[in-house]
């Protein structure tokens, strides 16, 4: 009896190549290759390449500050919407955040149809849910087919310095990583961030309780650098001035790693008080160039450059042989090393306000470097985001309940502090932000908060499929739109109250853009047989007899603007 490995048919169809290996068939190594593929991948690519025949219709009655706002809320299938946004927003989006379905088997709504995606979208919006059960032979493939074309289009919307953040759990983490690396390139992978989603893991959970969720990050271009975060109070408290310096500082190493490639920065510095020759540790070199080091040391005493024939010592530090180390590097030595200069340097130490390079052990120890707090800047974001800084799921539920009078119309919101962290490191005050799985509208809430804090003019585009919901709201778009209305009013009230009690010499805060234009995905406003529908946009083509019944001239105007990229 043959024992088959369960890996042959975990969630996809049986892998007959592996089955032949188990049965002992010979395998032609020449046919083997590394590839990431799945059933339907070609259609998924075609989905992203096929132009949309749809349009976006204005919904003024649902909007806030229609005439002045720069924010958009779009009701519709995000695949079609991403196609429609290409002409107007190609290369203009600084940051994208999405929280797509996690493919747990119960929450899969996006079932694309290559033959007619718009009709497919309209059919789906009448359903409460379309599950993707694990018993489906294409459990992972269905999810890949949903995500691939959307991410392919999303990449085209990113600016050259843009970045995308994608929330995901363990179900499709590795699948998403492969999709992202294929679309963005391995060189554009930024991080797999672990967000501490809960502050109280369940002790009764089976196996290992899940405490973190993943946020995968890719940039449009390689070598993307995030903005620095604000420094914490604890970090600033570590900076002091034990020598009476006018600037707060912390002690830092006067040397840095990399001696093997920086021979010219490895040399002796003579101690101004003891006369001892000081070198960097093995493998390290002095932090600053020699001219800068000499300038600082001359604040202690009179110094000069001199060749002291120490190539053997320098070679040891650089990890090389004497014949390979740079031989013309001079040491920084005292011009007159004697008891008088030693005493004068000791007096300089005792008087305080030491130079940037200073000495430990009451002036007689090793060399250190001052790191000034006003020169350090912010702190770097790591790949671990604790709930204490970025919120947790319980906080997110409390936020939405507060806005909706104690009721929660959405089960899985993200905390605004989590999105705020992304905005802090990935946007500036005038950035365009996109969320095309916008859920309850947390991203818009976070953008308005960020603008209220720093006076910025960030804009956001939110896209959401109008999934049916239970409770007081007919669909998820109604929930998102209402959240933005309520959050905007709350922010406006907070700003106005703060302005009633301004600080001394403080400028009053500006109420940010809390409005949004609602647009809905629909079929074209132009009759199919018209010149306009075929792509030849002329003034003669816009007569009333080519406009569909029930559509307004404003509907047509928006369609023309979309196609023109206005």
Number of helices: 17
Number of strands: 19
Overall mean pLDDT score? 87
Strand order of the largest sheet: 1-19-2-18-17-3-4-6-5-16
Any low-confidence stretches, pLDDT <50, length ≥5? 1-11
Counting helices, strands and paired strands, the structural category is alpha/beta
Largest sheet: 10 strands, mixed
Question: How helical, in percent, are the residues?
Answer: 25-40%
- What's the alpha carbon Rg, rounded to whole Å? 31 Å
What percentage of amino acids are in beta strands? 15-25%
Distance between the termini: 69 Å
Shape: elongated
Characterise this structure:
- By secondary structure, this protein is an alpha/beta fold.
- It has 17 helices and 19 strands.
- A ten-stranded mixed sheet has the order 1-19-2-18-17-3-4-6-5-16, sandwiched between helices. A three-stranded antiparallel sheet has the order 7-15-14. Strands 8-11 form a two-stranded antiparallel ribbon.
- A hairpin with a 7-residue loop joins β14 and β15.
- The longest helix is centred in the C-terminal third of the chain and has 25 residues.
